[in-house]
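job 3f2a | input accepted
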Amino acid sequence: MFALINNNEISIYPYTIKNLREDNPDISFPEDINDDLLIEYDVRRVYPTDKPQYTLDQTVVEGVPSWENGQWNQTWHVVDKQITKQQLIDFASDYRWRTEVGGVSFNGITIATDDRSQTKIIGARLAAELNEEWETIWVAMDGSRHVVDNQMMILISDVVQAHVNKCFTVYSQVVDDIDTEEITKFEQIVQAFNNEFISQTP
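job 3f2a | predicted structure (202 res):
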């Protein structure tokens, strides 16, 4: 990264080697241009810096490089996002889905709750309800295997269904709060879900 300097102030940033060649068409620059040659044409290297931390409701924009410790350094500014209601609703919808498929805990077993797993659970519940002797080996999200009988399968199904229902219930309340502008930030949506799913944050 480079900048064109005029009277010790930034004139053009960002400035590239291509810009340098185009601005000086009569000069045959070497393929690798060192800093000493750049200085002759008022071009200075700009050193990268880490972006500051920011929240879901903020963004980071690059500012004008600053002169510090004998060099030009990249600068950053944290600014608040201009968030529309539709963006909030879209975020809430995505967060609801990610929470839904993030799994649910049952008796120390983390049960997968993605769409495919939900279909399997429904099928296993139907089989369990029809056969008191029904039994299977259930594989948890961490890969561990567990013997599940018909009663346990019905309980697992109930837990998963309650989890999914809660996801939609929270989502519906969040959308209502967006509509009334009680929720105006992404972080508030995250908090609304986490208040109900403390141990299941996606």
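job 3f2a | The chain has six helices and eleven strands.
job 3f2a | closed
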